[in-house]
Amino acid sequence: LKKISFPNATNGAEQPVYDPPTGLFYMSIPATVANPGGEIAVIDPVGLAVTASYPLKNCGPNGAALGPGNQLLAGCGKAHRTVIIDKTNGAVLADFSNVGGSDEVWFNPGDNRYYLGESAAQNLGIIDALTLTVVGEVQSGVGAHSVAADPSNNHIFVPIAAPDPACPKGCIGVYSTVNLDENGRSRAL
After folding, report:
1. N or C: which end of the chain has fewer CB within 10 A?
2. What pLDDT, in 10s, does the model give residues 95-154?
3. Cβ neighbours of residue 69 under 8 Å, at least 6 residues apart?
4. In 3D, which of 156, 131, 132 has the Cα closest to residue 146?
5. Which residues contact 47 (CB under 8 A, 6 or more apart)?
6. Half-sphere exposure of 110 (CA within 13 A, CB side)
7. Does pTM surpass 0.70?
8. Contact (Cβ atoms closer than 8 angstroms) between residue 30 and residue 56
9. How many Cβ atoms from other residues are within 10 Å of residue 68's Cβ?
10. Handedness of CA 134, 137, 143, 148 (dihedral sign)
């Protein structure tokens, strides 16, 4: 019906997320001429137009995940950066400098946690959506930039590329609800 382009984007477009209650898409744009730290574009698929853009600072968002209420997590490509904004107005609800460097991100309503595929650090980052606090990070593996969750059993899935020492031909790491000790290290899963 229509092609929506982003002529001012300097680094393409990344992971979008659709919000059924509002009928809107939210798309991660890593950088634009006006917003070098990136932005979240709000797209109306009925009106076939970008209706708003929420600028981000020092983020370069690759991923987007909708959480409870009006939360939208922007998975920043910058190391140790993640931002949660209000999807209705772009206001920053939480700004993290200790978890991030994500590609794809996911919200799991089964345990009310965000999961981040931290590709550079080869970690699975975890943020509690109810308290807006970092739960911790769990080492995942080589090329671990994607993540998905099953809310019925809270299993978290992370593709791991070859030649990771734990799976030399590549595999899918499956994590149960991740439990961490008081120092943020993973316990037996």
Report:
1. N
2. 999 999 999 999 999 999 999 999 888 999 999 999 999 998 988 988 889 999 999 999
3. none
4. 156
5. none
6. 15
7. yes
8. no
9. 10
10. negative
